[in-house]
Specification:
CATH topology of one domain in chain A: MetI-like fold
CATH architecture of one domain in chain A: Orthogonal Bundle
CATH topology of chain B: MetI-like fold
Largest interface: A-B, 88 and 86 residues
Oligomer: heterodimer
Radius of gyration of chain B: 23 Å
CATH class of chain B: Mainly Alpha
Number of helices of chain A: 14
CATH architecture of chain B: Orthogonal Bundle
Radius of gyration of chain A: 27 Å
Order of helices and strands of chain A: HHHHHHHHHHHHHH
Chain lengths: 290, 279
């Protein structure tokens, strides 16, 4: 650039300006366009399940001669098993979410009241399913559950789901505890409150948001769990992910597109509700994330 | 220890006992079996090194993990950096587009990619209708399809990690650089990039760890043709009942993950980013 400005002193500033302007707009626009293209890459491919769900054919395709509801009707037909799997996943999800939240709340409150070596070591172990690949846990559980005859049972599945959901439950509840002033416990103790009273009367009412987050997150973990489920279920317990997995592998049936569309719809509605509530709160109280 | 402290400690016991009995113990048993099944010794580990099939599986795992990590982290960084600088309204839209794939089941996503990429999928039929290609492209049931599906799976996660990390960077540093006349590229390479390097490495670490042990997406989008460690372990347990090799591979996977996390926590800036990302 300096060469040209030496050679053509009169024209150079204008051209250099123009070139700098072009560079500036490229620097501004290229990342911006790329960002929205990438966001589209994340979101748009999932939308294809919607038209496929309404196909009038019995195989995976776009609608050919018109839209059809037959694949949604197949979901509702008890003989096809989808309803049964949805109920199985719902029951396991609700029981796991309740148990996991109760255990995680007790643990987090105990560790918050009395920080020590055991609680901090246990916290690392409780959070480890976040990092340890689930396939390793699956190998271990096949072995243990077959020794205890718990393969393919409700109880066996619920235990696994509780454990896999534990990290998010602990993070949600201990996050809420982090916002709680330890002075309230000292105040309650100095007023003569017994430990059970402190937990149920003082701490738990302040953790409502964290407990709700824990219930939701652990339900979602359970609802989506597939890796370990593949190894510890067979005929008796067929959760929804297990059924989707089998039908993707066996015959690519458009009913999967119908169930996928419903799951997409629920996720979108849930997130919209959350973002709108978040918005309103954000307007009331700025700088309030998490 | 006071009565109150004992009481608090008792509250931590049920969850702790559950984890020890049904998480730590079965995993320790996996480690133990790798040295004792079928005969005591290091035979299973010797097999991992010498068996050509296993070496191929390990090589495939690396071949998928490396491009997945590089692509995921680069693309996620572009998105996260743009999101930090967006106006609140647009940022909310962008966040929505990231969170929907983040929360939707991995099976739904793999299924959507099958619909898009297969021989008579949307990409191939569109390109053929436009006359751009005559034969369908092989976009799936090979490493390309697995990498596409894995990048799509990891990106929301990496974006959220990087976004949290980039939001922590003091915006006044950026304003100072701008007021001193630094251009966009300069601000990026001299301010954003060095300050966010720990966050980038943590994001890469998580993507590597998740890719190493990933079963679902490689199995569905590779359809047995892209055999990675997790799927190979699963075949050993379900079909060939080769527990020795399955547990030895699991143990190696666990050691590799543990080593990566340990390396990361040794570095102070990485540890800070790791703890920040856990919030």
């Amino acid at each position: 650039m300096s060469d040209t400005s030496l050679a053509l002193p009169a024209e150079a500033p204008a051209r250099a300006n123009r070139r700098a302007g072009l560079m500036r707009s490229l620097e501004t626009w290229v990342p911006r366009v790329l960002t929205w293209v990438l966001l589209g890459f994340l979101f748009v491919p999932m939308l294809v399940v919607i038209p496929v769900a309404f196909t009038d054919r019995s195989y995976l395709s776009m609608p050919v001669d018109g839209l059809s509801m037959q694949h949604f009707r197949a979901l509702a037909d008890p003989s096809k098993g989808w309803i049964g799997s949805i109920l199985t996943s719902a029951v396991i999800g609700v029981v796991s979410a309740l148990s996991c939240t109760a255990l995680a709340a007790a643990f987090s409150i105990g560790a918050w009241l009395h920080a020590g070596r055991w609680p901090s070591l246990m916290r690392v172990i409780l959070l480890s399913p976040l990092i340890v690949p689930p396939i390793i846990y699956a190998v271990g559980m096949v072995r243990l559950w077959s020794a205890l005859s718990l393969l393919d049972t409700w109880f066996g599945n619920i235990i696994i789901h509780v454990i896999l959901a534990m990290p998010l439950a602990v993070l949600a509840i201990s996050g809420a505890l982090g916002n709680l002033d330890p002075a309230v416990v000292r105040a309650a103790r100095s007023l003569g409150a017994r430990p059970p009273m402190i937990v149920t009367g003082v701490i738990l009412p302040n953790l409502r948001a964290g407990l709700a987050a824990s219930l939701l997150l652990s339900f979602i973990v359970s609802w989506d769990e597939i890796t370990v489920t593949l190894f510890v279920t067979s005929r008796n317990i067929v959760t929804l992910p297990r059924r989707i997995w089998t039908s993707i592998n066996d015959n690519v049936d458009p009913a999967i597109a119908a169930i996928a569309s419903l799951m997409l719809l629920i996720t979108v509605l849930g997130l919209l509700a959350r973002l709108l509530i978040w918005d309103r709160r954000g307007a009331e109280k700025t700088n309030h994330n998490n | 220890m006071s009565h109150f402290q004992r009481w608090a400690l008792a509250l931590t016991l049920p969850a702790g006992a559950l984890m020890l009995a049904f998480y730590v113990y079965p995993i320790l048993q996996v480690l133990g079996l790798s040295f004792s099944e079928p005969t005591p010794g290091l035979g299973n580990y010797a097999e991992l090194v010498t068996n050509p099939a296993i070496r191929r599986v390990l090589w495939t795992t690396v071949q998928v993990t490396v491009p997945t990590t590089l692509i995921t982290v680069t693309l996620s960084y572009i998105v996260a950096l743009a999101m930090v600088q967006m106006a609140p309204g647009r940022r909310r839209l962008a966040m929505f587009l990231v969170l929907v794939p983040f929360w939707i089941s991995v099976l739904v996503r793999a299924f959507a990619w099958i619909t898009v990429l297969r021989r008579r999928g949307i990409v191939n039929s569109t390109l053929q209708d436009l006359g751009l290609i005559h034969k369908p492209l092989a976009l799936i049931y090979n490493e390309l399809g697995v990498v596409i599906g894995m990048v799509h799976y990891m990106m929301p996660f990496a974006i959220l990690l990087l976004y949290a990390n980039l939001s922590d960077i003091d915006q006044s540093v950026i304003r100072a650089a701008r007021s001193l006349g630094a251009r966009r590229w300069m601000i990026f390479s001299r301010v954003w990039l060095p300050l966010s390097l720990p966050g980038l490495l943590v994001a890469a670490l998580f993507v590597v760890i998740f890719s190493f042990g990933f079963l679902v997406t490689p199995a569905l989008l590779g359809a047995g043709r892209v055999l990675m460690v997790a799927e190979y372990i699963s075949v050993q347990i379900s079909n060939t009942l080769n527990w020795g090799v399955a547990t030895a591979l699991s143990t190696s996977l666990l050691v590799a993950v543990g080593l990566l996390v340990w390396l990361a926590t040794r570095h102070p800036a990485l540890r800070a980013a790791l703890e920040g990302g856990r919030k």
